[in-house]
Amino acid sequence: MPLDLTAASSRVEIPIAWRRPLIWLAAGIAALILIYRSDWAAMAGQWWDSSTYNHILLVPPILAWLVAQRWPELHRLTPSGWWPGLILFAAAQLLWVLGAFAGFSLLRQAGAVAMPAALVVSVLGPRVSAGLAFPLAYMAFLVPFGDELVPALQMVTAALTIGLVHLSGIPAAIDGVFIDTPAGLFEVAEACSGIKFLVAMIALGALVGNVCFRRWSRRIAFMIVCIVVPVLANGVRAWGTVFAAQYVGAERAGGIDHLIYGWFFFGFVIVLVMGLGWRFFDRAPTDPLVDVSALQASALLDRLAGQRIGAGPLLAIAAALVLAGQGWALAADRLEASLPGRIDLPTVPGWHRTDYRPLLWWEPRATGADHRLLGRYEDGQGRTVDVFVALYSGQAEGREAGGFGQGALVPDSGWAWQGEGPAEVDAKSERLLGRGKVERLAVTYYRTGDLLTGSNMQLKLANIADRLLLRERPTMMLILSAEGRPDASAEGQVAAFRQAAGPVAPWMDRIAGGR
Length: 515
Description:
Layout: H1 5-12, H2 16-35, H3 37-49, H4 59-74, H5 85-102, H6 105-131, H7 133-138, H8 150-167, E1 173-175, E2 178-181, E3 184-187, H9 195-212, H10 216-248, H11 250-278, H12 292-297, H13 299-305, H14 311-333, E4 351-354, E5 371-379, E6 384-392, E7 415-420, E8 428-434, E9 438-448, E10 451-453, H15 456-468, E11 475-483, H16 490-501, H17 504-512
Antiparallel strand pairs: 1-2, 2-3, 4-5, 5-6, 6-11, 7-8, 8-9, 9-10, 9-11
Helix pairs in contact: 2-6, 5-6, 5-14, 5-15, 8-10, 9-10, 10-11
């Protein structure tokens, strides 16, 4: 049977009505990637270097495949410039600006990804964009997210593990994310939280839900499975490590766990989830992913499509929005509040300064701070409290008081997060464990303007407001910390010091003012 070359070529030929919009779109996206290259480079670095985000390397080819699957239907539509799409573009630009103001890379990167998507909507119009709705939404998976869930997942994994350990008859005690068994002390570390497979399974669940299901009820059910199964399976995996260690030793069990965790675990979870969902797939492989007839017949899309704009004015407005956002961010980056030339730790009634000699060295991190102080106070009863102060003239990328790896818990320092400390008003309380033997309580306060908080999110919102208004205000971080001792609890020592020092906010203001 002879090949129909004419039919084959017609499937790949780009209609005339599409050629100019695609050229404009390609040029616009290339310009956006060039302008925001630092954000794209940072994301690409995480895709390549972080095992949590290695799966994102597959997202660009998946996006290309999703568009290719829709092209045989989409090319029947006629693209047209759509000015309301510029509202989405402005919102994406504002998202990037807010991220730049807060030094919050997740927001910056989300804005950098959202701008090309908004440009697609603006250049191709509402009908074509409706046909591309899922690929445009799937672009969100280009943004590395999930680190914020690690502490919660550590606690969930620890709870699942200790439950299974007790069910298997092994005597064990749990303290935060540490599990003490006859074979040794086990930590549910960040790498054991299961975040890398959870975020990858969410991305897979969204893809399978769109491609393999028609009914939304089944899509939602499948996504729930993609969230629940990896979390439960990770708890079983952690239990297996603890269980095996009782017979082969902790070191050997850890080696086996790393092999299974890295090579087989994710494959097993994928097979399990796909097996659970397979019999419920209700979209045939030959079914089109886009119903062009419905898009053409939609009265709503017909009304929306009437809001047209030429490609030239559209791209000019988009360029003006980019320039405004860049200029605004540059002006905010230059904000520097005036600070005293020198600060010192104030006198506290009943307490005196003493040499800093911790059982295990502990030094918080405050990258980019203009002033840093670390000192120890002691009272007449021998109770000791360590005080760390960091004062910033401004907040920007690389110098955020609440940034990752900043504050009481420094990565790879020998200290591990043990769990949340006692509830505090306007503060973040954490229990740390050093080298598996030294316990420490760290209570963190942030101060800017009239705000006193322990919430990193509240601090970022306040910093954003200052930079939106181009308002110069210093930011301060205060950490009160104490080591746990047989004769004095860390919580009691910190509480006694705080009572003697008086209200925290005025105390911090005195330090920031150099008084």
